[in-house]
Amino acid sequence: MAVDMVLKDGIFIENGRETVRSVAIEARKIExxxxxxxxxxxxxxxxxxxxxxxxxxxxxHVHLRDLKxxxxxxxxTGTMAAAAGGVTTVVDMPNSDPPVLDKKTLDEKIARAxxxxxxxxxxxxxxxxxxxxxxxxxxxxxxxxKVYPHAPLDEDTKYTRERIRECTxxxxxxDLPLLFHPDLPASMKAPKNMEEFFLAHSCEDEVKxxxxxxxxxxxxxxxxHVCHVSCATTARLIQENRAEDTLTAEVTPHHLFLSGGxxxxxxxLAKMLPPLRSPYDNKMLMEGLRQTCAIxxxxxxxxxxxxxxxxxxxxxxxxxxxxxxxxxxxxxxxxFEKRLPxxxxxxxxxxxxxxxxxxxxxxxxxxxxxxxxxLARIQEGTITGENFFSKAKxxxxxxxxxxxxxxxxxxxxxxxxxxxxxxxGPGIAGKVPVQKS
Length: 437
Ligand code: NCD
Ligand code: ZN
Ligand code: ZN
Ligand code: ZN
Prior knowledge:
The chain is of the alpha/beta class.
């Protein structure tokens, strides 16, 4: 019997070391890893000499917009950006228009994504102000519950201690992780200047918010995930509260590699929430990711906005930047420049995010796991927003030198993206919605 495909003689990471191996794919799964000459008979093959064979990135924090915000991004452009960026699974946030607070909206998003997808797409739901309104029918199709204390999805919600406890209990009852944007409910009116904006989203507030969610998590033995940690102090607090796998956290590439002082902040180029912090925070976040286990994984927080929303004066500009096409080049550059060991790269980009959301057959290249694979090579280049497949083309990483390039992206055994081109149409590869195994 011949297998579907063999990826031949690529550079494969085994026990943290580079070695040459071939990867066989059969029925959307990895069939086996072979030494040169031992490969099974196959119907199709790709010559991977000089290419790294890596697990696709699993990005558990993206905003693909669509529905009423299709002008910012839709499931087609968003998942094309993912595939081009070597991201084979994305998990879509509920702060869309309309927000995901009911099954009807969730089903609409699922239907759109199913039709337009190029990669695997999973979903989160928000929690409406009246907690009893939560439709348990959604549980099967979502990977977590997400809340925004500073900007509730349901307008009249106040994130008091009681509300946080209520959301935590719902997560436990649903057997889902509770994810949250760590920040406090807005205490002042709209900021009048830049200083007020940064003050309204301070590290102190981030820490206080994380502490309040940890308190509820401990009380109810919930699973808690902290989104986009941006401060050294927050990383320390999370580290002090580690307990098995019940407290996890993510960091974005921009909070790892960029600091506020790098930008004049006259427009929205580098405006996002949480804001960019200091070089010391950058350093401690990387340490949290690599050494102290305070932070489990990298997530892009891909947050596309329209061009005019990003070129507007800082206070008026929208928060959020595209990230699906920059995470892999930036992270692999760390590996190629010897600042990040392969073991850490594979963990923070693929295996840890899969584990956090209970995706038991994703995130590792081993027999029986899904054939979600990226072929990449060492190649010097610069990040250029104009070349993004995302509708959002303004990035604070513009012009940054990187050493890695995605050549081919394979989703569930199907070659989707190859040498700058899409070789399948939408709606063919990948699964929507991604469900817990
Ligand atoms: C995100 C968005 O635009 O949806 N913006 C951002 O600055 N990160 C929302 C969020 O992740 O908090
Ligand atoms: Zn061979
Ligand atoms: Zn957020
Ligand atoms: Zn976000």
